[in-house]
Amino acid sequence: MMKNALFGGINAAVLTPYHADLSIDLDRMAGHARWLLGNGCNGLAILGTTSEANSLGLDERIAVMEGLVERGLPAAKMMPGTGTTAIPDTVKLTKKAASLGCPGALLLPPFYYKNPSEDGLFAYFSEVIQRVGGGIAFYLYHFPAQSAVPFSVDLIARLLKAYPGTVRGIKDSSGDFANSSAYVKHFAQDGFEVYCGADNLLQDMLKLGGAGCITAAANMNSAIGAEVYAQYDNARGDAAQVILSATRKAVSSVPLIPGLKALKARHTGDKGWLTIRPPHEVLTAEQEAKLFAMFDASGITLAKAA
What are the chain's domains? Predict the structure, then answer.
């Protein structure tokens, strides 16, 4: 396991709740974030895929960052997603995160134009880093199934050479252990933090020298994830990983974001959690029943809702 990682441990890709009119419910979001920090989460990855960030406008994303801090959530625990397809927007969001005191920001690559060259990607991140001007660490977001723009080992090496200490780590949501392992083997010895995006890989990544995870399922399974993180090299960790993997399999059996919102609504008794922005849709009754049955069969025990 990597020691002293800036976001080392369990980081939840935090859900974004809405009012009935589809405006963001910051009070409900802050309550959920407090519950996460009290139940195994070391950090809060807000405004990422699970947060429906690409369904939010720039002003809304800024309002989320400001609103959570105003409601007492520690900026020091937050890793906002600030990557967009436009350099000025990415810079604006990243500067806002830095000004609030967030230690790091998670950046998608510019994902609209497909098959960009390595030189083009390097130039994009160089522009962003230089325009932001410091004060925050950059974490790369490797999610080729969504972005269709992968981060190669060679590109990361170039960025680390050009911006040492500034490009601090990566979230690998490829679900490919070989790919995550390559990042660790090439760069972890220099302090580069590798976070898996799939809970089922957590223990193996920690054994290899990874820093932890940033996952959607941590919205519900953070406490058992924390058990794996604390006990990754012994039998208790082995047993916890079995449960953690089962919860991941359950939430992946249905559309992920609606499924997590359904679980949260059930856990809290708050049906407001079911509200979701199109094009996402609420689960069907059949999907919901399947999810609940698989999740409950995992053996996980959840702490009382906030």
Answer: 9-234 (3.20.20.70)
